[in-house]
Amino acid sequence: MSEETTIETQELGEKIVTVLKTIYDPEIPVDIYELGLIYDVFVNEDNEVKILMTLTSPNCPVAESLPAEVEERVKSLDVVKDAEVEMTFDPPWSQDLMSEEAKLELGML
């Protein structure tokens, strides 16, 4: 992988994070990225994206719609060839995964 490809991949990763920060958990007024629901974002040299994410609980009311929304929003970026969301509950989400910003927003600090 060339240095140029690495920079492009990194820039795409940042664009993806920007998109993820526009998606909110319906029950908590904080975006899914700051909540710590996104465990990992993988981008290969073909600009295919795989996102490993979780939900606040397996019984979350948006268990079906939220991953689909994440996938669609990421696919809407011009440079993304394809996007796939993989759900995991290992490790289970906890408040420890939230950013300082999210904790502050929710009055937890």
UniProtKB/TrEMBL annotation:
Transmembrane segments: none annotated. It holds the Pfam family FeS_assembly_P. SUPFAM superfamilies: Fe-S cluster assembly (FSCA) domain-like (SSF117916). InterPro entries: Fe-S_Maturation_MIP18, FSCA_dom_sf, MIP18-like, SUF_FeS_clus_asmbl-assoc. Residues 14-86 form the MIP18 family-like domain. This is SUF system Fe-S cluster assembly protein.
